[in-house]
Amino acid sequence: xxxxxxxxxxxxxxxxxxxxxxxxxxxxxxxxxxxxxxxxxxxxxxxxxxxxxxxxxxxxxxxxxxxxxxxxxxxxxxxxxxxxxxxxxxxxxxxxxxxxxxxxxxxxxxxxxxxxxxxxxxxxxxxxxxxxxxxxxxxxxxxxxxxxxxxxxxxxxxxxxxxxxxxxxxxxxxxxxxxxxxxxxxxxxxxxxxxxxxxxxxxxxxxxxxxxxxxxxxxxxxxxxxxxxxxxxxxxxxxxxxxxxxxxxxxxxxxxxxxxxxxxxxxxxxxxxxxxxxxxxxxxxxxxxxxxxxxxx
Length: 297
Hints:
Elements lengths: L1 E17 L5 E19 L6 E5 L9 H13 L5 E6 L10 H16 L6 H8 L6 H6 L3 E5 L3 E4 L9 E7 L5 H7 L4 H4 L6 H9 L13 H7 L1 H16 L7 E3 L6 E5 L2 H14 L1 H5 L3 E7 L3
Parallel strand pairs: 3-4
Antiparallel strand pairs: 1-2, 2-4, 2-5, 5-6, 7-9, 7-10, 8-9
Helix pairs in contact: 1-2, 8-9
């Protein structure tokens, strides 16, 4: 069986508080885009979990392997499998590639081993693997709260920008490092909760560009990685010249990817081409990747 394991973007990411266990409470809007890894899942002749392909050298630290072990333990299944990963999503880029891979393996093995677990049952396994993994089990664009496990699926994704230009510098960022360095202020902790009614209003106002909220981790990331600040400022300068709201250019997750959501393929390609012209030298030196993606179906 072959599966596409999509990347995600955080259209906004607000940090609310820090829990005693060290995790942070967030409020975010997650969307899946059609930049994806390819995962092949097949039977194996014995009970072992065999990992091939990209990142297999991580062995027991590999999220695909961890997901397979977790599901095998939960189900008490005596079957094995062979999981092969082909990476296309940049690593350490705030795109959730590892979490997506883990979720894809859980869903794939649920089918291969004929376990018949519901999404809710799979999400219980997923949340122990990583905070973003339950989102990918949902297979929908979602508002997420808590540490990201409380999800409200968006029934009509037509209200969101369809196309996204992503710029991923060749800088791998540790999510744990960013949250450790992040300074929670009164501004964050006293920001009013966004009610379900307000979230419905955010979506019902269907605008060509998404400018609601911000990414609270952005200031921490740019202070630690000034090059990302320069890329982001350049993206915003180009957006302004093209009549695109600069607020729609923002960072995803804990970085390093920055992006801009656009309403049409033509506007996205135009924006991408302008970025590529601006960063021609960086692209030739493989210092970054620029993609046009659309919402994942």
